[in-house]
Amino acid sequence: MTGNDYQWVKRFDPAKRIFVGEAYIRAKRIMDLTLILLAAPIWVPLFLLIALAIFISSPGAPVLYTNKRAGRGGKTFLFYKFRTMVPNADALKEKYMHLNELQWPDFKITNDPRVTPIGRFLRRTSLDELPQLLNVIKGEMSLVGPRPTDFGPDAYNLWHTERLDILPGVTGLWQITARGSVNMDERTRMDIAYIEHACIQLDLLILLKTVVAVFKPSGVT
After folding, report:
1. CA-based nearest residue to 147, from 123, 129, 120, 121
2. CA 98 to CA 212: how far, in whole Å?
3. Of 182, 181, 172, 145, whose CA–CA distance to 70 is shortest?
4. Residues facing residue 81 across a β-bridge
5. How far apart are CA 68 and CA 148, in angstroms?
6. Which among 122, 141, 123 is positioned nearest to 132, based on CA atoms?
7. Which of these, 15, 83, 171, 193, has the minimum number of CB atoms within 10 Å of its CB?
8. Are strands 142-144 and 169-171 parallel, antiparallel or unpaired?
9. Is the peptide bond prior to 105 cis by the omega test (within 30 degrees of 0)?
10. Coil, strand, or helix at residue 23?
């Protein structure tokens, strides 16, 4: 897929939204918490099993990877993922900078040498993203929205900042189309398209497409 595959979003007519403005934000928050609660019998035991597997594989090292990400309005928050890399992965970025496939400050290596064996499985199945449900519960993220960047707004071009108008998401158009193979400019175009057409129906469709995408080899990034 390419970034152009998100044009179907424009079929969602903003004039036909059921909820708009603050009503949409409240409805989306209720939807997020309801879905998380209903899915708790599945994701809570899975969360504990994965945490135990990571702990056993590397005792003493953190189970969760945390770093600061840019949220709504550029406000930073502590972002959670299961640790899929060696504990000093961030310090090794400079060493592997020559392998970076995206334009800095984005950083991506397809076969990243820093990834652990368990981490490869978690990334392939997108289970490393599971702890972000905690970010959603805390109100720092939503289930659907622009993917938060691990670099701050000071590294954005001015037009990129429009993606900060709403809460970042666990999944979004980037995850169900280009899947991490596009640069910041193209991702931002997707985010703006989503923001301009955002509605409960679109959110539900993106969640459904995410479930389908997770079973593809590349996983959600």
Report:
1. 129
2. 33
3. 145
4. 65
5. 9
6. 141
7. 15
8. parallel
9. yes
10. helix
